[in-house]
Amino acid sequence: MKPIFAMILMLSVVLLNIITVQGSGVLWLVNKDNPLPADFHPVDLVEYRHVKLSQPAKDAFIKMLSAMESEGVTGLRLQSAYRTHEHQSTIFNRKVASLTAQGKAYEIAIEEASHTVQPPGASEHQLGLALDVSINGELSQKFADTPAGQWLEENCHRFGFIIRYPLTKTEITNIVYEPWHLRYIGIPHATILYEENLTLEEYHHYLSSIFMYIVWGDSDDYYLISYSDVFPDNLDVDAEVFETHPQSGYGYVIIQHKIQDTEI
Ligand SMILES: [Zn+2]
């Protein structure tokens, strides 16, 4: 299915069935410009193997792994998932220290480090919705050329994940290509980003700055995705409402599932 990007249109449909799903945190844009507070902790962390991650990311990962293995692609390892703010600080400071040890000035080391390691607060790992995966324990761009890397590139959106820092979008994400870093954002959003080759930054921009509606699906069964600056209390039907930022005042993304009644 190809999503249709459209400016606001009047749509005449009969509303038959609107799904309701809680999505807190799932669509938050977290990066250097939109950091998480130091005291942010996900409320739905669960243990899985040797890591912790948010419940929806865990459920989706298990389904994805099972589909992958049933298609003959094996050996995917989950390297890491949730990280505390403090842990991210440690990783970032270690990277800065290794660059200053090479003789780089502190400010330059900070800037360079931030292209490969997110500074504390800017890491999606603090959300519990980001996963690093590998086949041999190494987080390497070579992973993209492995069967597992290729399978994820083509299929992870079917389970609600995106390759968050793609090869062709490093100027937008400001992060080097990381084929091993998956972010859970839910199936409709992930599929639209995959089909339209968008980053999460661009998706938020299109919805919130240009106020586009996105229609995704078939003409008689589709999702209408829109943005509102304020919590949409005027919805007369249930809808899936996503916060876009951990702090209030940043607007909401709304998904309405619409099915046209062809029998009327
Ligand atoms: Zn990662």
In short:
The protein is α+β, with helices and mostly antiparallel strands and 264 residues long. The chain has helices at 55-70, 85-101, 106-113, 147-155, 170-173, 187-196, 200-208, and strands at residues 4-6, 45-48, 51-54, 77-80, 130-134, 161-163, 181-184, 213-218, 221-228, 240-243, 252-259. The protein contains 7 helices and 11 strands.
Cα(first) to Cα(last) distance is 25 Å
Helix/strand/pairing class, anyone?
alpha+beta
Regions with little confidence, pLDDT below 50 for 5+ residues? 7-23
Average per-residue pLDDT, rounded, comes to 86
Judging from the principal axes of the Cα atoms, what is the shape? globular
* Fraction of helical residues: 25-40%
Give the helices and strands as they follow along the chain: EEEHEHHEHEHEHHEEEE
User: Under the CATH scheme, which class of the largest domain?
Assistant: Alpha Beta
Counting DSSP E segments of at least 2 residues, the number of strands comes to: 11
CATH topology of the largest domain: Muramoyl-pentapeptide Carboxypeptidase, domain 2
Report the C-alpha radius of gyration, rounded. Answer: 19 Å
Strand count, sense and closure of the main sheet? 5 strands, antiparallel
Number of domains: 2
Residue fraction in strands? 15-25%
Give me the number of helical elements: 7
Biggest sheet strand order reads 1-8-9-11-10
The hetero molecules present are: zinc ion
CATH architecture of the largest domain: 2-Layer Sandwich
